[in-house]
Amino acid sequence: MKRRTPVSEIMSSDIITLSKSDNLEKAEKLFKKHNIRHIPVVNGESIIGMLSYTDLLRISFADATEDEGNVDTIVYNMFTIEQVMTKKLVSVSSDTTIKEVAEILAKNEFHALPIVDKSLLVGIVTTTDLINYLLEQY
């Protein structure tokens, strides 16, 4: 296993994003369509927050039924992305080592880190990315 491998080796750089003016219904559709659990919220190319699928579940009944019901739509219309997203972000640069990223994720209660170089969002890394990297090493 390489000790100084940068996170840029395992991060996703084809990033699905939302803007704070998007609605939560759009967010849910993106989560399901792309089978992802975290979406950075951006203003231009700068990240301003992170929305997780868990954030949606906290305010809705999305996991209680597979039906596309009215309940979620009503609840989603009560909140904005800006109200639901995490605003206090921890981010790392693309040259941060995978070990350092693993340490940050292990110590915190979140499962994704935005990768930011010179104030621009360039990627995202998740605990799943880390697990897949470890599996490749064996």
Run of helices and strands: EHEEHHHHEEH
CATH class: Alpha Beta
- Describe the global form: globular
Question: Regions with pLDDT < 50 over 5+ consecutive residues?
Answer: none
Care to count the β-strands?
Answer: 5
According to CATH, what is the topology? CBS-domain
Beta content: 15-25%
Main beta sheet? 3 strands, mixed
Q: Give the oligomeric state of the chains in this entry, treating copies of one chain as homo and distinct chains as hetero.
A: single chain
SS content category: alpha+beta
Number of helices: 6
Spatial arrangement of strands, main beta sheet: 1-2-3
Instruction: Let me know the CATH homologous superfamily.
Output: CBS-domain
**CATH architecture classification:** Roll
Helical residues, percent: 25-40%
> For the residues shown, what is the average pLDDT?
89
How many domains make up the coordinates?
1
Distance between the termini: 9 Å
Rg computed from alpha carbons, rounded to a whole number of angstroms: 16 Å
Structural notes for this entry:
InterPro entries: CBS_dom, CBS_dom_sf, Diverse_CBS-Domain. Keywords: CBS domain. Residues 11-68, 85-138 form the CBS domain. The protein is of the alpha+beta class and 138 residues long. The protein has a single domain, classed as CBS-domain. The protein is 36% helix and 20% strand. The strands form 2 sheets. Strands 1-2-3 form a 3-stranded mixed beta sheet. A hairpin with a 2-residue loop joins β4 (112-117) and β5 (120-126). The longest helix is centred in the N-terminal third of the chain and has 11 residues, at 24-34. The radius of gyration is 16 Å and the shape is globular. The model has no long low-confidence stretch (mean pLDDT 89).
